[in-house]
Amino acid sequence: MPVISVSQLTNYITHRLKDDTRLKSIMVKGEISEYKRNASSGHAYFALKEGDSTLKGVMWNARVDKLGFTPEVGLSVICTGEITVYRSGGYYQISATEIVPVGAGIRAMQLKELKEKLQRKGIFKPERKKELPPLPRKIALVTSRDGAAVYDVLKVLKRRYPIGEVFFFPAQVQGENAHLTIASAIKTADVSGCDVMIVTRGGGAYDTLSAFNTEEVALAIAECETPVISAVGHEIDTTLADYAADVRESTPTAAAEKCAPDINTLISAADLERERLDDALDIYFRNKTVELERLTMRLAGVSPMQSLERAKTAADNLSARLGKAYAARLQAGQARLETLSGKLAALSPFNVLERGYTITLKNGVPVTSAEQLSEGDTVEIRFSGFTAEAVIKGISRKEDNL
User: Fold this and answer.
1) CATH of 126-261, one of 2.60.120.620, 3.40.50.720, 3.40.50.2300, 3.30.2010.10
2) Architecture of domain 6-119
């Protein structure tokens, strides 16, 4: 037979193990004889013992964080994982993905199957998670009437967010029919008109959380129109209710804090915003005051009132000038009238009468030519102070007297 190296043998064994599909996903039962978690990497290294057989094992940090308990030496467990070769140590090991106590093994498998079923329905998908309202007015609380969780939540909300109104929907959180009462309370709370819902219970043994690991409760939460915060058990406990909820918190107190902001923070923020608004308004009004003054000055030059005032002043000046011109014109007219009156009086035929002359009138019309008279006409002869009538007996012209 040919001589092979250690590496060649190790590679051969590694490939043979990888080719065995039965070793890809295997469940191994045994008692923990060693357990240590590396402080820097977080990986867990352990050994399973059964009789005189020992199986080394490793679980990576991310998986260890999801265990929900701390494995201890002497504890009987079922490890699920893949058989691999540790080349540096020269031995095979189980690379574990799950470790559950033997007593909980069947339930763990059932829970795993249920979780996978619900995952296929899509109720755990991140994209279906709803946002929590920033300032809820009505808060629904689903929990036990007698548990400490209700008091923890109410105490936190009273201190942090007294303006919120809490509506309590009691449910049995453990026991044979607890999951049915929880699902019913969730559905009732969902149609109550509340803005957000807290589904919670206090800590306890992992087995006591089984009501929150049921299909009924997970679906009731997933079907809610109201955003749901789940806080079941301790920080290391994660239930199907937590996966289905929109937000998961570790404790009832943390759920209450997540549900609503601290009113003191809101008041401080409001005060800060008010100061900023006051400053902004001061600047705004100062700028607008300067602009108003500038526009007022511009408006003064084109204002209709200013134009009207100037027109009124001009009209008053024109009126005064017209009055003076009219008075001067009137005075000149009166003077001319007096002059003309004097001349007219001097030329008036009636003034001539006072010097002994007369005026002959025929039918009220002065006679100025012979053609106006005929023999037998009656005429009026006007003297100064009296009038006489005469009958024309004959008419002679100047030519006739020459």
Assistant:
1) 3.40.50.2300
2) Beta Barrel (2.40)
The label of the residue with tokens 């006051």 reads: 278
The one-letter amino acid code at 364 reads G
Listed residue (110, 91, 108) closest to 45, CA to CA:
91
Contacts of 100 (CB under 8 A, 6+ apart): 77, 78, 80, 108
How much is the pLDDT for 384?
Answer: 79
User: CB under 8 Å to 134, separation ≥6 — which residues?
Assistant: 261
User: What is the C-alpha separation between 240 and 245, in angstroms, rounded?
Assistant: 9
Q: What is the mean pLDDT of each run of 10 residues along the chain (402 residues)?
A: 84 85 89 93 94 94 85 88 90 92 67 87 93 94 90 92 93 90 96 96 73 94 96 77 93 92 85 90 90 82 73 86 88 87 72 76 87 88 87 78 53
Q: Strand 76-86 to strand 91-101: parallel, antiparallel, or no bridges (unpaired)?
A: antiparallel
For 83, left (φ over 0), alpha (ψ -120 to 50), or beta? beta
How many CA within 13 A on the CB side of residue 217?
29
